[in-house]
Amino acid sequence: MYVLMVYKYFGRIYLIPWRTGMVFSKAFYRYTQSFGGMRAVIPFKKGNAKSRLGKLLSEKEREELAMAMLNDVAEALLGSGCFGVIDLLTTSIIEVKGLNTVLTEKGLNEALNEYLGKMSSHSINEPVLIIMADIPLVSIKNIRDIAASATDVVIVPGRMGGTNALFIRNPSSFHVDYYGASFIKHKEIAAGSGLEIEVFDSFNLSTDIDEVADITEILLHGKGHAARYLKKLGFTVVEAENGGRVGLKKI
Ligand SMILES: Nc1nc2c(ncn2[C@@H]2O[C@H](COP(=O)(O)OP(=O)(O)OP(=O)(O)O)[C@@H](O)[C@H]2O)c(=O)[nH]1
Ligand SMILES: C[C@H](OP(=O)(O)O)C(=O)O
User: Fold this and answer.
1) Measured between alpha carbons, how far is 132 from 250 in angstroms, rounded to an integer?
2) If you count Cβ atoms within 10 Å of the first and of the last residue's Cβ in the chain, which end, N or C, has fewer?
């Protein structure tokens, strides 16, 4: 008799012969045991989100765009199949399918350092990916590439000195320091603990949406919730009149 097995691997479902499945399962089990589970955490503040876009969007629109970008990031994390747990560290009650809502009143640094501290005090020694909610171009492949790194700390820079993601293999030996030149600060924190660093080079991941000009990148390259939301609001990319590359127009 030919029996098929439903096999879920990195978020995709396969139908394979039972015997092959058993061999795969054992190999996959040994593989996962070799590195343990992984978790991801997305810090999020919906209230008056993206204030630097205030010249272009109303408060309600900024909050809706922030939610759309969060959904893009969540889908990439869930689609990657890399994480047993994905926490949403949020300042207000928000439900996103597949994510655990963790409420906090604290600011970004305090909230994340408390989160890392709790992991240590509960002896959760899993690698953790801290990823910002404002990088809507992120792909499933980007996430899998980060998670596949064998380095102690993967730092994903944002433009102008920011940090868009941090993959920390041993969270008890690291703390975060966002704002200002956080990219430099995170490299120093890792180096100070003798940790090996990989700087992750990616257009998608370095494109955080902070300023009005960044909106153009979503319209040029985005395919997800944020791109659809901006198009729904009537935004489109046009040739710049002054010889520059492109501009933004609202129809
Ligand atoms: N939990 C938590 N997350 C935050 C807080 N402030 C910002 N974030 C999140 O941290 C990430 C980067 O933040 P920013 O780029 O400064 O986003 P923002 O605060 O909405 O934007 P601006 O008002 O323009 O600074 C985003 O995922 C935010 O949602 C906070 O106080 N607490
Ligand atoms: C949180 C901060 O984000 P930005 O202000 O660059 O959006 C940072 O990356 O340190």
Assistant:
1) 27
2) N
Cα separation, 10 vs 141, in Å, equals 11
CA distances from 85 to 46, 112, 186, 198 (A): 22, 16, 24, 23
Answer yes or no: is the C-beta of 135 below 6 A from any ligand 1 atom: no
CA separation, residue 65 to residues 22, 50, 87, 89 (Å): 45, 9, 20, 18
Query: Could you give the ipTM of this predicted complex?
Result: 0.98
Contact status, residue 215 vs residue 248, Cβ threshold 8 Å: yes
Q: List 39's β-bridge partners, or say none.
A: 85, 128
Distance CA 139, CA 191 (A): 28
User: Which atom of ligand 2 lies nearest, measured to the CA of 163?
Assistant: 9
Q: 164 versus 23: which is more confidently predicted?
A: 164
> What does the pLDDT look like over 200-219, one tens digit per residue?
999 999 999 999 999 999 99
Burial of 111 (0-12, 13-18, 19+ CB in 10 A): buried
**Distance of alpha carbon 2 from alpha carbon 245, whole angstroms:** 59
Which domains are delineated in the chain? 4-34 (no CATH), 36-206 (3.90.550.10), 214-250 (no CATH)
**3-state DSSP assignment of residue 212:** coil
